[in-house]
Specification:
The protein is an alpha/beta fold. It contains twelve helices and ten strands. The strands form two sheets. The chain has a seven-stranded mixed sheet with strand order 1-2-4-3-5-10-6, sandwiched between helices. A three-stranded mixed sheet has the order 8-7-9, with no helix packed on it. The chain is globular, with a radius of gyration of 21 Å.
């Protein structure tokens, strides 16, 4: 009989062989694979097709390009035009970061993304737990080169903070500096805006031209965790709680799948009795519950929800890496911003990094399955705790 770790590895290796960028045929194949896997376990799942754009490099690249044009206009003496272009670029970017409204995407090409939804537990229960994963895969890019976080660790930078650097600050900084340079007439600011704008355009083009990574840790680990959780919940159904297993598409294009899920379902999920547990990159060394996240604005997770996860982890003897935040975004941002009790369960290396992030060596061979198994045990216990006693 296969051990749990061997079965997780086998499923993860199957999933990583599917090339599955956001809103693509490969993403659809991954969704269909997940539905079939759930069916083998005896669980019925459905695919909800949603409208999506499928990238983040186009919206951010356009915003950065507008900023660069604004800087050029300012340097050429057309200060009003430069300010307008810079402000438009910055506003478009800021609105595109989750949980923004993402209006720029509405004029860009559209594709279809595929969410997988499976409902288990007590269908008549007043309480609901939604466990989120995502089955699409990120593109690589030079900005994700592992040498960069390794250099930061060697310099001791990761020891001095429990918050990741704001990686999007230089990207939006280009059009902001261009606008400031135009408004103030300070050419140095405009030149810096031009430099950052052109660099950001190049970085986004590089990401768009690269292939998706195998995405075992980010986020195949969470997908196979949902499968194991489905098995456990079917074998021993939880009392007093309905459980929704949700695997989204297009998380890697700024959480378009969970955005669409929210627009479709949040009105039917009462905020006072629904708990979201986002499972994200569960295959590094240390398990953790993010204290907060956000691309530009740090949004702390609800204290009651964090306290529940911390308490259940302590009862199970599971150590969680303490007090980490990230200037990035998971699918947990959308329900948290909508007012739900939400926690993002993740993992990190000794250097407080997610591990092989958006890089071609993000394979099952490099996943720490003991961390993944702890995440599954904790998620299962949290769901059952919510059924017997709310926060």
């Amino acid at each position: 009989m296969q051990s749990e770790a061997d079965l997780l590895r086998e499923r993860l290796e199957e999933l990583e062989r599917i090339e599955r960028p956001s809103a693509s045929d490969g993403e659809r194949q991954a969704a269909e694979w997940l539905v079939a896997q759930l069916a083998e376990l005896g669980a019925e799942a459905r695919i909800e097709a949603e409208d999506a754009h499928g990238t983040y490099w186009w919206p951010l690249g356009i915003g950065a390009g507008l900023g660069a044009l604004g800087a050029l206009a300012a340097l050429g003496g057309r200060r009003l035009l430069g300010a307008l272009l810079g402000l438009a670029g910055a506003a478009g970017m800021a609105d595109d970061f989750p949980p923004g409204r993402r209006r720029l995407r509405r004029v860009l090409p559209r594709r279809t993304t595929y969410n997988v939804v499976c409902e288990l537990g007590d269908p008549g229960a007043e309480r609901t737990a939604v466990l989120i994963a995502h089955h699409d895969a990120a593109h690589s890019g030079l900005v994700f080169h592992p040498a960069l976080p390794e250099l930061a660790a060697r310099l001791g930078l990761t020891e001095k903070t429990d918050t990741s650097p704001p990686l999007m600050a230089p990207v939006i900084g280009g059009p902001v500096l261009a606008a400031l340079g135009a408004l103030s007439g300070r050419r140095l600011l405009a030149r810096l805006g031009l430099l950052l704008g052109l660099g950001s355009v190049a970085a986004m083009a590089d990401i768009g031209l690269r292939k998706p990574v195998p995405a075992a840790n980010d986020n195949g680990t969470a997908v196979v965790a949902l499968l194991e959780l489905a098995r456990r919940l079917l074998a021993e159904p939880p009392q007093g709680i309905r459980v929704i297993l949700l695997s989204t598409g297009s998380e890697e294009s700024f959480s378009e799948g969970i955005k669409a899920y929210g627009e479709r379902h949040f009105d039917s999920l009462p905020r006072e009795s629904t708990f979201f547990l986002c499972l994200e990159t569960l295959g590094a060394t240390h398990l953790l519950a993010l204290r907060g996240e956000g691309f530009l604005k740090m949004r702390d997770y609800p204290p009651r929800a964090l306290a529940l996860v911390d308490r259940v982890a302590a009862e199970l003897g599971i150590w969680l890496y303490p007090n980490l935040r990230t200037y990035n975004g998971t699918d947990g941002l959308e329900p948290a911003a909508a007012g739900y009790e939400t926690v993002a369960l993740c993992s990190c290396t000794d250097d407080k990094q997610p591990g092989r992030y958006h890089w071609p060596n993000d394979t099952a061979a490099n996943v720490d399955f003991s961390t993944l198994q702890r995440a599954i045990a904790l998620s299962d216990a949290v769901v059952r705790q919510l059924g017997s006693r709310w926060l």
